[in-house]
Design brief:
Blueprint (H helix, E strand, L loop, with lengths): L2 E9 L2 E19 L4 E14 L3 E13 L2 E9 L5
Antiparallel strand pairs: 1-2, 2-3, 3-4, 4-5
């Protein structure tokens, strides 16, 4: 992870303050048919961890259009603390 930021965040489970936001980039090697070789592809991640709760939100972007591995966006949020 590259940066840590303090933020407020709102999700279905409530509004939280003093949360730590982690922002990171990872790279994976994927086969790219058009180039007939492996290339590094980035994966971007944002995570929000809040006091006394833990992980409340996560977003992950995989911006690749490789034939065998289609990218996209995954979002998860905390729905309830019960």
């Amino acid at each position: 992870f590259r940066r840590v930021l303090f933020r407020s965040v709102s999700v279905a489970a409530g509004d939280y303050t003093g949360c730590v936001q982690f922002k990171g980039v990872s790279k994976i090697m994927l086969w790219v048919e058009s180039d007939m070789s492996y290339k590094e592809m980035p994966i971007f991640s944002l995570e929000w961890y809040c006091p006394d709760v833990g992980l409340v939100k996560l977003e992950r972007r995989e911006p690749t259009t490789a034939r065998l591995f289609q990218g996209g966006v995954m979002r998860m949020t905390l729905l309830s603390t019960h």
